[in-house]
Design brief:
- The protein is of the alpha/beta class and 660 residues long.
- Helices cover 17% and strands 35% of the residues.
- It is built from ten helices and 31 strands.
- The strands form six sheets. It has an eight-stranded parallel beta sheet. Strands 3, 4, 5, 6, 7, 8 and 9 form a seven-stranded antiparallel beta sheet that branches.
- Helix 9 (481-496) runs parallel beside helix 10 (534-543).
- The longest helix is centred in the middle third of the chain and has 17 residues, at 382-398.
- The two termini are 44 Å apart.
- The structure holds alpha-L-arabinofuranose.
- Alpha-L-arabinofuranose (AHR) is lined by residues 51, 53, 244-246, 377-378, 410, 464, 507-508, 518.
Length: 660
C-alpha cells in the first residue's frame, strides 16, 4: 500500500529539489554541531496527558472491578443483577439518605429468604472483570446487619458462569462497618463477574461493594492497575497533566471537576456522571461515571511515583464551551479561586495547614512540590480572559512561584486562537497551552511552526496533540503508522524549539478497546491486556532520549524540516556526554544520510541506533499483535566522527554517540 501522505511530501520534495539537487540521489549530509550547546531542554519537555475519557480511570487504570459499587449511578442498579432460583425470594430496596449522607446518599437494603433455593446478586464489572490466575482478590463492603448475622458467599465467575475462586464473609452488627475478605483466583478470565450468594434468611444494608486485585501498582491497597501504570513509567515522563481535558470543565458547571470532592475517604467522594457518558451519539457510554477512587491525592502520588511533575488543571468558572458554555459571574468567582488556592495548599502546604493536614492524613506528610497549575482547559473568548486575569492576580499574589498554564483554545489557528494568542502574551502569562488534533499532513507542514515564535514571550505547552488520519468517521481514526510518523516529524520541530516549547503531551492517553469514545489514543487496553500504539513508541523514543541541551543539526546550513521528506533534531546530554540525533524519513523510499558530528573534542566510535518503522502507513498495533511496530536497537560505529547510514522508508531513527 502506498503512503497516503506522500502527495504532500512530494510537493515539499519538489520545492526543495533545487537546494538538494545533488543530494537526492546520493546522501543528505547532516552536520551536528556539539560545540556550543544551545538552550536547556527542560526536564518537563515530554510529558503525559491524563483524562478520564475512554474508561481511562474507572474501568481502566483504577483497579476497582465492581461497577457502580455505591449504587449512585443514575440507574441505581446498573451493573447489578439479582436472581432468585428454586423457591428462594429476595428484593433490593435502594435507600436514599440524602440528609445524613450527602456525598454518598444511596445504599442497598437487601432482604431474602433462601431457606430453599438461592438468591444472588451479580456485578458485571466494566465490560467484564479482568481476573488473573493465582492473584489475590480483596473484597470489601460497607454494611450493617441489624437483624442478625448474615453470611455471604463470594465467587468469581468466568464467562461461562463457572466459579474461578471465592470465599465467604459474615456481616454482623447494626452499625456501618467495612467488612473484608480475600481469596485467590484459579483461572485467568477477561470477562469475569462477581456473584454474591445470600444464605439462609436475612436482611442487609450494603454500600461500596468492592473488589480489587492485590497486585496493584506498588501493591497499594485499592490502587491502580500495575500493567497500565507501567506504560506511563516507561515513558519517563517529565510531567503528568490531570484530570483533563474537558472533564475539568464539565458539560455544565454542576458537573465540573471539583478536586475537593475527590480527596479523603473513598466512600465519601461524591460520584458524578462522566461528561463522556453522553458526549458522542455514535459512542454512547451510559454506564460511564466518575467514582473518584482515582482522585487528586492519587494523581499527585502517581506523578511522584513515575517521576513526573504534577500539572493539575483547575476549573476557572467556565463549563465546556462545546456544551453548555455556562460561566460564573465575575463577582461570584470566589469559591473557584479558593479551590485553586486550597489546591496549592493541599499539594505543598505544611501539615499544620487545613489542606496540608488532609494530605498528611491520607498518607503523604511531605509536600508534593507542585510547581505549576493550569487555569481552565480549552477555554476561549473574552469571557476566558476576564476570568483568567482574576485567577492570575489571585494566585500570583499568594504563590508567585507557581507557573500558570493558560488556554489558547481548542485549535492552533483561526479566529479563537488569533484572539487569545496576543491577549495571553500581553498578560505576560507563563505558558500558553496549544492544542492540535490535525491531519498527518498538518503535522508535516507545521514542523517549523515554532521556528519563528517570539523567544521572549510566554513558553509553549503543546498540551494536546495527535495525528488524526480520518476526520469524518471516528472508528477509522486509527493509531496507525502514518499518524505516528507525522507526529515524530513534527516533534523534531518541538525539540528544535525547546527553548520556548517546554512541555508537550500526546492526547488522549488511554482507551478501553470496548469502551472508548475518542480515537486515536496512546495506549489501548482490555480488562487484562494492554498495548502501546506506534504513537506511544514515538513518544517513548523522544522522552527517553530527551537530552539536556539543544544542538544544531543542519543540512546545507539549514534546519532539516521536510526537505526530501527528512526531518531532524539533535540534543546533547550533558550528564551522559552523549549527542542524540533524531532523524525522521517520511518518504516512501529509503534515504541515505551522512551524519558528521563536529564541535566535540572526542567523538566515540561506538554508538547505538534505534529505528521505528513499518511497511505500510495503515499498520497498527493490536491486542493480538501488540509489537507489530516497535523500536529495534543496534550498535553502530562511526568513522572519523562520521556515520553514513540508510534511513528506511517511513522511519524514525535515534542515534546516540558519546561526545566528550
Ligand atoms: O483529548 C480529548 C479532548 O480533546 C479533551 O478533553 C479536550 O481538551 C479536547 O477537546
Amino acid at each position: 500500500m502506498k503512503f497516503s501522505f506522500i502527495k504532500s511530501i512530494g510537493l515539499l520534495t519538489a520545492m526543495s529539489a533545487a537546494v538538494f539537487s545533488h543530494a537526492i540521489a546520493q546522501s543528505t549530509v547532516l552536520t551536528v554541531n556539539a560545540e556550543k550547546p544551545g538552550a536547556a531542554i527542560q526536564p518537563t519537555m515530554w510529558g503525559i496527558f491524563f483524562e478520564d475519557i475512554n474508561f481511562a480511570a474507572d474501568g481502566g487504570i483504577y483497579a476497582e472491578l465492581v461497577k457502580n459499587r455505591s449504587f449512585e449511578f443514575t440507574q441505581p442498579l446498573m451493573g447489578w443483577k439479582d436472581e432468585s432460583k428454586d423457591g428462594a425470594k429476595g428484593a433490593i430496596l435502594i435507600v436514599n439518605e440524602q440528609a445524613t449522607r450527602p456525598s454518598n446518599p444511596r445504599y442497598a437494603h437487601i432482604s431474602w429468604n433462601a431457606a430453599q433455593g438461592t438468591y444472588t446478586l451479580t456485578n458485571e464489572g466494566f465490560r467484564g472483570m479482568g481476573i488473573r490466575k493465582d492473584i489475590q482478590y480483596n473484597f470489601s463492603v460497607w454494611a450493617k446487619a441489624p437483624e442478625g448475622d448474615v453470611k455471604l458467599k463470594l465467587e468469581l465467575l468466568n464467562a461461562s458462569g463457572a466459579s474461578i475462586g471465592g470465599t465467604a464473609v459474615t456481616i454482623s452488627g447494626s452499625d456501618w462497618k467495612k467488612h473484608t475478605a480475600s481469596f485467590k483466583a484459579s483461572a485467568t478470565e477477561p470477562k469475569g463477574k462477581l456473584r454474591i450468594t445470600f444464605e439462609g434468611k436475612g436482611t442487609l444494608d450494603a454500600d461500596m461493594i468492592s473488589l480489587f486485585p492485590a497486585d496493584t501498582w506498588k501493591n497499594r491497597p485499592e490502587g491502580l492497575r500495575a500493567d497500565l501504570v507501567q506504560w506511563l513509567a516507561d515513558l519517563k515522563p517529565g510531567f503528568i497533566r490531570f484530570p483533563g481535558g474537558c472533564i475539568v470543565e464539565g458539560y455544565e458547571l454542576a458537573t465540573r471537576y471539583q478536586w475537593k470532592k475527590t480527596v479523603g475517604n473513598v466512600e465519601d467522594r461524591q460520584l458524578i456522571i462522566n461528561r463522556w457518558n453522553t458526549e458522542f451519539k455514535h459512542r454512547p457510554a451510559p454506564d460511564y461515571f466518575q467514582s473518584f477512587g482515582l482522585g487528586f491525592f492519587e494523581y499527585f502520588q502517581l506523578a511522584e511515583d513515575i517521576g513526573a511533575e504534577p500539572l493539575p488543571i483547575i476549573n476557572c468558572g467556565m463549563a465546556c464551551q462545546f456544551n453548555s458554555s455556562e460561566v460564573v459571574p465575575l463577582d461570584q468567582l470566589d469559591p473557584y479561586l479558593q479551590d485553586a488556592l486550597d489546591l496549592i495548599e493541599f499539594a505543598n502546604g505544611g501539615t499544620d495547614t487545613r489542606w496540608g493536614k488532609l494530605r498528611a492524613d491520607m498518607g503523604h506528610p511531605a509536600p508534593f512540590n507542585m510547581k505549576m497549575m493550569g487555569v481552565g482547559n480549552e477555554q476561549w473568548g473574552e469571557q476566558y480572559i476576564d476570568r483568567l486575569k482574576v485567577f492570575a492576580k489571585t494566585i500570583k499574589a499568594k504563590y508567585p512561584q507557581i507557573k500558570l498554564i493558560t488556554s489558547a483554545g481548542p485549535f492552533p489557528d483561526g479566529e479563537l486562537f488569533d484572539y487569545l494568542n496576543p491577549q495571553l502574551r500581553d498578560l505576560h502569562i507563563d505558558f500558553i497551552d496549544e492544542h492540535y488534533y490535525r491531519s498527518p499532513e498538518w503535522f508535516l507542514t507545521n514542523a517549523k511552526r515554532y521556528d519563528s515564535y517570539d523567544r521572549n514571550g510566554p513558553k509553549i505547552f503543546a498540551g494536546e496533540y495527535a495525528g488524526h488520519t480520518q476526520r469524518k468517521v471516528d472508528p477509522d481514526k486509527k493509531n496507525n503508522w502514518e499518524s505516528a510518523l507525522a507526529e515524530a516529524a513534527f516533534m523534531t520541530g518541538l525539540e528544535r524549539n525547546a527553548d520556548i516549547v517546554q512541555m508537550a503531551s500526546y492526547a488522549p492517553l488511554f482507551a478501553h478497546v470496548e469502551g472508548w469514545q475518542w480515537a486515536p489514543d496512546l495506549i489501548w487496553f482490555d480488562n487484562v491486556q494492554s498495548f502501546g500504539t506506534p504513537n506511544y513508541y514515538v513518544q517513548k523514543l523522544f522522552s527517553t532520549n530527551r537530552g539536556t541541551h539543544i544542538i544544531p543539526v543542519t543540512a546545507a546550513n539549514k534546519p532539516l524540516a521536510g526537505e526530501n521528506g527528512i526531518y531532524a533534531s539533535a540534543v546533547m546530554d550533558s550528564k551522559t556526554r552523549e549527542v542524540i540525533i533524531k532523524v525522521v524519513n517520511t518518504g516512501e523510499k529509503e534515504a541515505t544520510v551522512d551524519i558528521r558530528v563536529s564541535g566535540a573534542k572526542n567523538v566515540s566510535a561506538a554508538g547505538t541506533l534505534s529505528v521505528l518503522k513499518s511497511a505500510s502507513p495503515e499498520d497498527i498495533n493490536t491486542l493480538d499483535d501488540p509489537f507489530h511496530i516497535k523500536p529495534t536497537e543496534q550498535a553502530i560505529s562511526l568513522k572519523s566522527r562520521k556515520l553514513k547510514t540508510v534511513l528506511p522508508a517511513a522511519s524514525v531513527t535515534v542515534i546516540r554517540v558519546k561526545a566528550l
